[in-house]
Amino acid sequence: MQPSQAPHGNLHHRLWMYEAMVKSRELESRIKTIYFEGKTPVFNMAKGPIPGEMHLSMGQEPCAVGVCAHLRPTDFVTATHRPHHVAVAKGVDLRKMAAEIFGKKTGLSRGLGGHMHLFDAAVNFSCSGIIGEGIAPAVGAAMAARIQGRDDVAVSFMGEGATNQGQFHEALNLAALWKAPVVFIIEDNAYGISVCKAESTSVASNADRAAAYGIPGVFVPGNDPDAIHAAAGEAIARARAGDGPTLIELETHRLEGHFVGDTVEYRPVEERERLAELDPIQLFRSRLIGDGHEASELDALDAEAVRLADDAISFARNSEYPALEEAFAHVFG
Amino acid sequence: MSSVDVMQETGAKTRAPRQRRLTVARALNEAIHQEMATDSSVVVLGEDVAKIGGVWSTTVGLLDAFGPARVRDTPISESGFIGAAVGMAAVGLRPVVELMFVDFVGVCMNSIYSLAAKQRFFSGGQVTCPMVLMTSVGGGYSDGGQHSQTLYATFGHLPGLKVVVPSNAYDAKGLLASAIRDDDPVVFMFHKGVQGLGWLGTVPRAATHVPEEAYLVPLGKAAVTREGSDVTLVGLGLTVHHAIDAADQLQKEGISCEIIDLRSIAPLDQETIRASVRKTGRLVAVDDDYMSYGIGGEVIASVCEDASITLKATPRRLSFPDIPIPFSPVLEQGVLPNSEKLVALARQAVLEK
Q1: Using the beta-carbon criterion (under 8 Å), do A327 and B323 form an inter-chain contact?
Q2: pLDDT in tens, B171-188
Q3: Architecture of the CATH domain B3-209
Q4: By CB neighbour count within 10 A (0-12 exposed, 13-18 middle, 19+ buried), where does B12 fall?
């Protein structure tokens, strides 16, 4: 395995993963609270400082950090309509990201994109609101790196629901055919809105689908940052070395609804009641302490995450809205 | 009772006895229930349509009433399940398929425009495609540029598809029943802004009296929502309500507006539009799709191509500008058509020398 090349200096990768998970969680906790401003007592999606749909990634943070711990800013990542954890782990500017989610002119895209359309070219991150749309662009970016003589890789994150899109199959065949330096990460949170995986997908594990394209398929159970880090490290090293793509399916948990406001009645009650016990941040924290890390060390990381999240939200709140001309200024160059 | 009567009646301040009012969502739901009950060939497919009754509440209760063989949740495989619906329709079923957001058409356009739209033509009339593609359209609630488009003209442009856009619950039920019974593919586009879902905000006026019994509103036939003499306002879906609000405002200024609700854009009811403009001599078309090559242009052309019409003012159109839909609420609200912009255009038309 190649050494980790994450943008986290000398911080041990497990602590970096922990801090990135907490950072994402703290940011999203604030977004969730603010999302309800202006939406009570009557919930109307159009109202409040954060209008529109809001898809939170709480619970899925291990997928983002375990993979992105191996990535450089020049590696290319595409994420989904549920993008915040991946954006944070890829090093997207937190202030600009928060401002974009608020629709402010200081946002990543000057307020044009919103939370499903976060673009940060400085770290080669983007996401999309259409299921499966990021898979093929990752193959293309990976091929570009090879054509341009760089050893950068591309990673496409997707939900398990995306594997039933035609794009998934076309892109995997292309990647295998071209031996593209790309890694496909499936975050299997078991639900596409209300439809559970067993009712949408003909195979239990999407890792089995890799065989159809002659590439390695890996399944990582447990929503475990360490296990994800190990599997992703191997796949990314393989891609960097020119040995082609890997498909990895990660078992994970969506602690929130499909969007904020989703009552989640389609999930069995016992399943919903178990979710709190499955919080990966608490589980990982316990493991780190069991492995000899001091609680105070983790508390300090928590405090830093809180500070950064507060700073980002405050920046977003205090920023101006864009001028109307901005809407017309970016259709063509 | 016509939809015109209904809309006028619901504008009345007091009524007795109180009539049953439904939202567009409930009216659509009732139409599907009734058509499924009377025709066993009607089946329903789509994402989240069975267990939770559809994201837009169009298919509530169908799974319990008709069972999983006729009401199916699908994977996120629009190209697959819409193509499958064409196959079902070819051999005797009447699929009603929901495409959750019209914006998702990008992943399944082939199944719609190469397959569904061309089955009858390519087979020389041997094979028909009696399917309905229901889909939500419209923005205004900051859902970003991939969840807020209307794309009316995209579908209206493609030969072989009938395209329907209701503005109120009465029409919604009757049009959907007609669409399900029609032997050709119908794209049924319901606007989120009139759907009547509390969590999304809605135009209260779109909830109207809806008779309990099944009835039909014909496809391809526009409605005269309000009669007037100075200027014709032509809208569809949500923008019919912009037109009503604008007409109310202009009435205070002594300007009398006639309002046409297109209801269908393919086929387009050119006769109703022409008859109105022949009377008023002025035309303002309003829609919330992108402007270029769009609904407004088509409506204006249908008038200008009729040499018997003498216009008293240049025809005008209000649409969404030719830009992707911005997320930020100030930008989106700034560029969306609304009644104030419509009032200004209609006033210009009336004042033009």
Answers
A1: yes
A2: 999 999 999 999 999 999
A3: 3-Layer(aba) Sandwich (3.40)
A4: exposed
